[in-house]
Write a structure and sequence with these properties.
Layout: E1 3-7, H1 13-17, H2 27-30, H3 32-35, E2 40-47, E3 50-60, E4 64-72, H4 81-94, E5 101-107, H5 111-118, E6 123-133, E7 147-149, H6 152-164, E8 169-173, E9 176-179, H7 187-192, E10 194-197, E11 204-212, E12 214-220, H8 232-241, E13 251-258, H9 259-264, E14 277-283, H10 289-294
Parallel strand pairs: 4-5, 12-13
Antiparallel strand pairs: 1-2, 2-3, 3-4, 5-14, 6-13, 6-14, 7-10, 8-9, 10-11, 11-12
C-alpha cells in the first residue's frame, strides 16, 4: 500500500484520533490546534488513508529545532515508519537556513524512542532529572536568603560564564534542554527570569515561571554543591512561597539535576525523581563549524 509523508493541518485531527497508539489521554490531541501552528510543525506518515506515524518539531529562540510528539499506530509497528518519519523531519528542519541545531529529548526508559534517535546519527548528551517537590522546607536551615540580581548585564555575564563558555546544557524550559550558545538567550526573555546571587557573588541560580500542566517554579543551578551553600534552599523556598499559581494549576518546584547533583542529595530529600531525560542532537557542521567543534558531543 502507498505511503506518504505530508504536513498536517487542523483538518487532520480525525486521523490522529483514529490512531491506536496505546497512549491514554494523549496530550497531543488536547493541544493539537497549537501543534500545527508556528513555532510548531507536525508531519504524518500515511499508509493509504490511515495515519501510521506522527512526529514534528518546535522552533526555540529562532535557531534551535526540538523534535517531538513521536507516535506510531500499533497496527503498523515493526515497519520502521517512526524512523523514516524522524529522518524526514531532521532533514526538513536542517533545510531551514536559520537553524543551527536539531535534536530531541527523551526519557531514559523510552527505549523505542532512543533507538529511533540513535539511528539519526544524533549524538547522545547528558542525562538530566526533572526533579519536582511541593516544597523544600526540609532542606532549609534558617540561613539568610540570597540577593536578587536586577542588572540585565550581570545576568548575561552569568549565562556567558557558566553556560556558554563551558559548553553546558541549559534547561530553557521544563522538558526542553539545549546546548547553550549566545543564540539561545534573548535579552527580553532573560529580563523575565529572576537571578539570585550569594553573598560571595560566586554562586547564583535562576528562577522562572513555567506552565506544563502544573505551575512550575523552575530552578536552574549549575553546580553540585547546593547542600553546602548557605541560603540556597531558603531562597528557593521563600521565592516559591511568593508565587501565586493561576486558577486550575497546582504549584510545585522543578529543578533540573544532573547525575552528580542527584548523588549529592541527602537520603531524606523531598524530590520525586522520574526517569532522566537524555538529550540527542546535532549542530549544522557545514554552516557552523565552530559550534560543532565547541560542542563535540553534538557535532
Amino acid at each position: 500500500m502507498e505511503t506518504k509523508i505530508r504536513l498536517l493541518t487542523i483538518d487532520d485531527l480525525p486521523f490522529l484520533k483514529a490512531m491506536q497508539t496505546g497512549i491514554e489521554d494523549d496530550y497531543v490531541i488536547r493541544v493539537y490546534e497549537r501543534m500545527v501552528m508556528p513555532p510548531n510543525t507536525l508531519y504524518g506518515l500515511f499508509v493509504g488513508d490511515k495515519l501510521a506515524a506522527l512526529c514534528g518539531y518546535t522552533i526555540f529562540a529562532g535557531r534551535y529545532a526540538m523534535i517531538g510528539r513521536l507516535r506510531s499506530d500499533e497496527r503498523f509497528r515493526g515497519k520502521n515508519f517512526a524512523t523514516v518519519l524522524t529522518e524526514f523531519i531532521k532533514t526538513e528542519a536542517f533545510g531551514r537556513e536559520e537553524l543551527i541545531w536539531v535534536g530531541a529529548n527523551t526519557q531514559e526508559e523510552n527505549t523505542p524512542a532512543r533507538r529511533v534517535l540513535e539511528k539519526q546519527a544524533f549524538a547522545e548528551g547528558p542525562r538530566l532529572y526533572g526533579a519536582v517537590a511541593e516544597d523544600v522546607r526540609s532542606l532549609c536551615e534558617a540561613a539568610p536568603v540570597w540577593t536578587k540580581i536586577d542588572s540585565l548585564e550581570r545576568k548575561k555575564n552569568w549565562l556567558e560564564q557558566v553556560y556558554v563558555a563551558t559548553n553546558r546544557i541549559f534547561p530553557l524550559e521544563c522538558y526542553y534542554n539545549f546546548p547553550a550558545t549566545t543564540a539561545l538567550f534573548d535579552d527580553e526573555l532573560i529580563a523575565t527570569w529572576d537571578f539570585y546571587e550569594n553573598a560571595n557573588r560566586d554562586r547564583m541560580f535562576i528562577a522562572k515561571k513555567d506552565y506544563k500542566k502544573y505551575f512550575n517554579w523552575h530552578i536552574i543551578y549549575p553546580w553540585d554543591d547546593f547542600m553546602e551553600q548557605p541560603g540556597f534552599w531558603e531562597t528557593v523556598q521563600t521565592t516559591y512561597e511568593l508565587q501565586g499559581a493561576p486558577p486550575g494549576y497546582e504549584k510545585r518546584i522543578w529543578i533540573d539535576f544532573d547525575e552528580t547533583q542527584v548523588a549529592s542529595l541527602p537520603s531524606c530529600h523531598p524530590f520525586e525523581l522520574p526517569s532522566p531525560w537524555i538529550l540527542y542532537g546535532a549542530f549544522r557542521p557545514s554552516m557552523h563549524k565552530e559550534l560543532s567543534v565547541q560542542f563535540g558531543r553534538f557535532a
